[in-house]
Structure formats: C-alpha cells, structure tokens
Amino acid sequence: MRRSSASAMLSALVLLGVVLLAAAALTRQFTVWHDEYSSQFVVERKLFVPAYKRWQEQSPAATAGQTPR
Length: 69
Hints:
With about 70 residues, the chain is mostly helical. Helix content is about 90%, strand content about 0%. It has two helices and no strands.
C-alpha cells in the first residue's frame, strides 16, 4: 500500500512540475508578445493619427459642417 501511495505522490509532483513549467513558459511568451505588440502599436498609432487628421481636413463633410456617416 505504501508503494502505490508513494508512486501516486511522485506522479502528482511530476504533473505539478510539468504544469508549473508550462505556466512559466506561457507567461514568458506572453510577455514577449505583449512587448512586441505594444511597440508595434505605438509605431502604427504615430503613423495613423496624422493621416486621420489629414483625412478629416480633406473630407467634404468637414467643410460643410456635417459629420460623416
């Protein structure tokens, strides 16, 4: 009986170790993805805002005092 409970305990510890390693790897990968996406978002936003302002200024609705639909 002791042998099977020790085996079960060892299996549970191994499973816990695998789960913790997977969680650590996923956390690290998420951090890398988040950093890359955040820097890409900043660059795209810097390009988008001036282009959007130019589009608003050139829009016929802007000169007529109407809002575009």
